[in-house]
Write a structure and sequence with these properties.
2 domains, alpha/beta, D-Maltodextrin-Binding Protein, domain 2, globular, 4-stranded mixed beta sheet, 39% helix, disordered N terminus, 13 strands
């Protein structure tokens, strides 16, 4: 297999590619995961093909435009005066004029309907309909459509330049199977960075505790799980409450709040990768090793320390017991969430900062910022109306987004409106340069195993040997079955 999924190999590629900045910074190369080109006044270098689509319609199936507080808007009926909205609107009208076609967007309803996008596509393709030309679907549900041979191999689409900067090369490299690729992420959608994990912290609380803000630790490559644990212990305080059980109107403060799935991001940040390439070039489970067990022991110690950590629900920020609400209410020093929370916390009363998830130890060569496996990925169903031009449309839209939309998203929406200081903006850039995507979860190989591991860790249970032993055969069987199905297609 020429380009088999291998998370471990991808990690090595990212680390060896680091050429900008010193190793003291503890970050990857400035180009890793950073698909935002510099804004320039020079002539547009993109080679727009000379095509006339004669007024045809290109239809996207999309998650709800504001689902999970992400930026999923693909089009608008008119300009709104909001810079990001207007950039998206103008991008679409520009490409419509260039190629003489119309963009249509069908949004799903909020909530669980997002998970149904795969079923909607399945029904459409199997019926031989061609309702949708492209879709953004939940990453963890894409595997079944791949094995059922319902999606286009994106490599077969003329004009789709997946090796260009406007496509997320981290996801691209992680997701290839023997020169085939069925989903991608890139600058056409903002949701993948929205769902990239990080740590927010309450700067005001840190000042009250007389703690040094961790920005310099990140810059110096010294931001580790042990240093995070020190901060968490300093913040834990009953403040007169009988216990650290989270209660409405309670006074106890905590070191760190998140929901159980946040443990995946912390594991990956500590250099844990779920699969690697075996001697035959095939992906295989790679968790039965000393590093994984050491990371689990360390995280279980952190999560199991009463008051240092609190697991919240997934309710919205208004709920006292939600992982966001605990932080929003000023009761936790750190909050493990995703970058989209910079907008969710816009009316937060205190000053907050953001840092990447910590390393396992200082000798780790760089940070890893996990893009949530639930984030939308771009797929093209086999019944797309015009496969000869679908790649051209998608590639041009992604390029125009990198040129016109992303600078506004990062510099205005995220930096000016979301983050509150230059340190956090610098940290956002570090997170962008250290993106990591775990294709094994997107393909469904390790999704259940990761869920089991996380649920144990947040309860302070770190012994994973039996868990890995019992899951190993099942995971590798799923991998083998998918490869065999692809060989038959």
């Amino acid at each position: 297999m020429k380009r088999t999924i291998t998370i471990l190999l991808l990690a090595s590629m990212l680390l060896s590619a680091a050429s900008c900045g010193s190793t003291d910074s503890g970050t990857h190369s400035d180009t890793t995961g950073d698909t935002t080109p510099e804004v320039t006044t020079e002539a547009d270098p993109y080679g727009y093909p000379d095509i006339d689509l004669e007024g045809e319609t290109f239809t996207f199936l999309m998650p709800a435009a504001d689902m999970w507080d992400m930026h999923c808007t693909m089009d608008l009926e008119a300009q709104t005066g909001e810079p990001l909205d207007d950039a998206i609107y103008n991008r679409n009208r520009d490409i419509e004029d260039k190629y003489n076609f119309k963009i249509e967007v069908i949004y799903t309803d909020k909530g669980n309907a997002y998970y149904e996008i795969g079923n909607v596509l399945r029904t459409d393709v199997m019926a031989g309909d061609n309702t949708y030309d492209a879709a953004y679907m939940c990453g963890t549900y894409v595997g079944s459509l791949v094995t059922e041979d319902l999606l286009m191999d994106l490599n077969t689409l003329n004009g789709l330049n997946l090796d260009e900067a406007w496509w997320n090369q981290v996801t691209i490299d992680a997701s290839y199977i023997d020169d085939q690729i069925y989903f991608a992420q890139g600058d056409l959608s903002l949701s993948s960075f929205d769902l990239t994990w990080c740590l927010f912290f309450n700067e005001d609380m840190m000042d009250e505790l007389k703690l040094e803000k961790p920005y310099d630790l990140v810059r110096e490559g010294k931001w580790t799980i042990d240093r995070l644990a020190e901060y968490c212990k300093a913040a834990a305080n009953l403040n007169g409450d009988a216990s650290f059980t989270i209660t409405d109107g309670g006074n106890a403060t905590y070191g760190y709040s998140t929901y159980y799935n946040g443990a995946i991001a912390t594991m990956v940040g500590a250099g844990v990768h779920f699969t690697e390439q075996d001697k035959d070039g095939n992906p295989t489970l790679s968790l039965d090793n000393e590093h994984f067990y050491n990371v689990c022991d360390r995280l279980a110690t952190l999560y199991g320390a009463e008051g240092d950590f609190i697991e919240g629900t997934v309710a919205d920020k208004g709920a006292f017991d939600s992982y966001v609400g605990i932080f929003y209410g000023g009761r936790s020093l750190f909050y493990g969430g995703e970058m989209k929370s910079a907008g969710v916390l816009r009316d937060f009363n205190a000053t907050f900062g953001v840092v990447p998830n910590p390393k396992y130890e200082e000798s780790q060569e760089g940070y890893y910022s996990l893009t949530n496996q639930l984030s939308p990925v771009l797929v093209v169903p086999k019944t797309t109306k015009n496969p000869e031009t679908a790649g051209v449309i998608l590639d041009t839209l992604a390029y125009m987004s990198s040129r016109d939309v992303l600078p506004i998203y990062y510099d205005v929406t995220m930096a000016q409106k979301g983050l509150r200081n230059e340190d956090s903006i610098e940290m956002m850039d570090i997170i962008r340069r250290s993106l990591f995507f775990d294709a094994s979860m997107a393909y469904g190989w390790t999704t259940n195993l990761a869920d089991t591991i996380c649920r144990k860790l947040v309860k302070g249970e770190g012994d994973m040997a039996s868990t890995i032993a019992s899951a190993s055969t099942g995971v590798n069987t799923k991998i083998t079955q998918m490869l065999e199905k692809l060989a038959e297609n």
